[in-house]
Design goal:
Number of helices: 12
Radius of gyration: 28 Å
Distance between the termini: 62 Å
CATH topology of the largest domain: TIM Barrel
Shape: elongated
Structural class: alpha/beta
CATH class of the largest domain: Alpha Beta
Oligomer: single chain
Helix content: 10-25%
Number of domains: 2
CATH architecture of the largest domain: Alpha-Beta Barrel
């Protein structure tokens, strides 16, 4: 508490000095009172839809939609010196009858983009304030944001962005440079208030008690191409992927599914799909800082461990590791370090990056990688700086956690060929790395993409499955009947004793293992999965 108070005293002393500093506005004529001619403000555009009206001797900027879907805009570009590290935008605004257009973002708004010297967008851009409906009285608004490294210009677009209708007025628009400490202080105060609010919330009660030590499975480590216990006994992980916590803070029948999967289907491993935003408490509809979500994960760990089974905590994110993923693993690893039942899976499905970026990090562009890979969801690509899979391994190990780690390959988790080409991860002081592949009927070259590793590393087929229904992203020629594909795939898994979890133990996320929440297995995939977990042998007649 003393350190916290001292931090704020230092901040507020600096803020006192800032109050007397030069805060010259960077935008010209934000009061709109300097006119070059009637209806035209100096430094601002004007046309039939962008005007400078007068009201009781006061001038202001007005944007008026002439017809549904037409864009109306007043554009400004502000040059930023190297000394400008943060900005404050303030303005007065009112609006009338702004009706949203065909898309959710077709409304009234202030769009802002940072640009570098070459004219390329530099992220992160400030969040655009938006306006809909009617607010006839002037409202004062303020927004503060940092200037990202490399930005030399800020574009501001005051706009009715393809709205159906509406009038949008602005006045007293000011953009000034501020010291980043102002934002630091605001964020620290907001975090302190949020922490105080969360501290007063009732704590979620655990549903599954912590199992006694004699109930826990032995810890796993890599030995050659197998997983072994401290006593040297080989363990073959076979189980089920339990989704929903990646799209829902409350999950869907998570604990029940774990019980049915282990007790009824004989799984000894559950792959639990998680979302970093839900863990941090910033996901939709969360107001407890993530407490209930983290407790559900704890209950899931206890449900598996108490049955002598293992649980893979899968960060169900895509593309490449980012800073928020490192923050997730720092917290998760500290919480579950050296728990014998817990395995860490770094990132669900990397894709559209090079092996160099996959391993060591670097610039990830907004371009698709090309080649023969099928785009397996509609994820919008954006550019960012990746820390690489090695960066996530290092974050975990720095907590003191030695838990077994799983790393998935490229092409949406399928392709592991680069691991043998010099991009294997280093694991210093841990229990080792197991590499993961996601195998579906539209994937080919089993030998080259994952089986080539099987003699050197333990493999985890973290997602595998087939469905009679063709998903829209699968080319027609790559659709295959599960009746032929499933026994061939399960035969390969059994022949090479590959660790695996079937996708997926949910009736609506395909390829489906379940028909319903009565846990009826689908005939095309669920039945053979249950049979395989029960010990039935399958034979591979054809490789892919």
């Amino acid at each position: 508490m003393r350190a916290f108070v001292a931090f704020f005293l230092l901040l507020f002393c600096r803020l006192d000095r800032l109050a007397a500093a030069d805060v010259r506005p960077l935008l010209p004529n934000g009061s709109f009172e300097a006119l070059t001619s009637p209806g035209r403000a100096d430094g601002w555009p004007a046309d039939a839809d962008v005007t400078i009206p007068e009201e009781a001797g006061n001038h202001f900027l007005r944007l008026k939609s002439p017809s549904p879907g037409k864009q109306v805009m007043a554009y400004q570009a502000v040059s930023l010196g190297k000394e400008v590290q943060a900005l404050r935008l303030s303005y007065k605004v009112r609006h009338e009858d702004i009706r949203r257009g065909k898309q959710a973002w077709f409304d009234g708004r202030i769009m802002m983009n940072f640009k570098d010297a070459a004219g390329s967008v530099v992220n992160p851009s400030p969040a655009p304030p938006s306006f809909t409906g009617t607010a006839r009285d002037w409202q004062e608004k303020t927004q503060q944001f940092r200037v990202p490294p490399g930005a030399v210009k800020l574009e501001l677009m005051f706009t009715l962005f393809q709205a159906e209708s509406g009038t949008l007025d602005f006045d007293e628009v000011r953009l000034v440079a501020i010291d980043p400490v102002v934002i630091d202080a605001a964020e620290a105060e907001a975090k302190a208030k949020e922490a105080a609010r969360i501290a007063e919330l009732p704590k979620p009660q655990p549903q599954i008690p912590v199992p006694s030590p004699d109930k826990l499975p032995p810890a796993l480590k890599v030995s050659g191409n197998r997983l072994v216990t401290p006593a040297g006994r080989e363990v073959w992980l076979q189980g089920l992927a339990v989704p929903s916590m990646e799209w829902s803070a409350g999950g869907e029948n998570v604990l029940k599914s774990i019980g049915v999967g282990i007790d009824g289907w004989k799984a000894n491993c559950i792959r639990l799909c998680l979302g970093e935003k839900f863990w941090a408490g910033t996901g939709p509809w969360q107001n407890d800082g993530g407490m209930a979500y983290r407790q559900l994960v704890e209950d899931a760990v206890n449900a598996c461990a108490g049955r002598g089974a293992y649980i893979v905590l899968d960060l169900h994110a895509y593309r490449a590791p980012q800073a928020e993923h490192a923050a997730f693993w720092k917290d998760v690893a500290a919480r579950y370090k050296n728990h014998p039942a817990v395995i860490f899976e770094l990132l669900n499905e990397p894709h559209d990056i090079s092996w160099e970026v996959w391993r060591n990090g670097g610039l990830v562009t907004d371009k698709k990688g090309g080649g023969d890979a099928v785009a397996e969801n509609g994820e919008k690509l954006s550019g960012f700086q990746s820390i690489g899979m090695q960066g996530l391994v290092n974050v975990i190990r720095e907590t003191g956690a030695k838990n077994l780690i799983i790393a998935g390959g490229l092409d949406w988790g399928y392709d592991l060929a680069g691991v043998l080409d010099g991009f294997a991860l280093e694991d210093r002081g841990g229990h080792g790395i197991m590499y993961s592949s996601h195998v579906y009927p539209w994937k080919s070259d089993w030998q080259g993409k994952f089986l080539a590793l099987a003699d050197k590393y333990p493999l985890f087929i973290g997602e595998v499955g087939a469905d009679t229904q063709r998903m829209e992203f699968i080319p027609t020629e790559r659709q295959e009947d599960p009746a032929t594909w499933v026994p061939d795939m399960l035969g390969v898994i059994q022949k090479h004793r590959l660790n695996w979890t079937a996708w997926c133990f949910h009736p609506k996320s395909t390829p489906r293992v379940l028909l319903d929440w009565d846990y009826t297995p689908t005939p095309f995939w669920g039945v053979p999965v249950k049979d395989a977990l029960g010990g039935k042998k399958f034979e591979t007649r054809k490789m892919r």
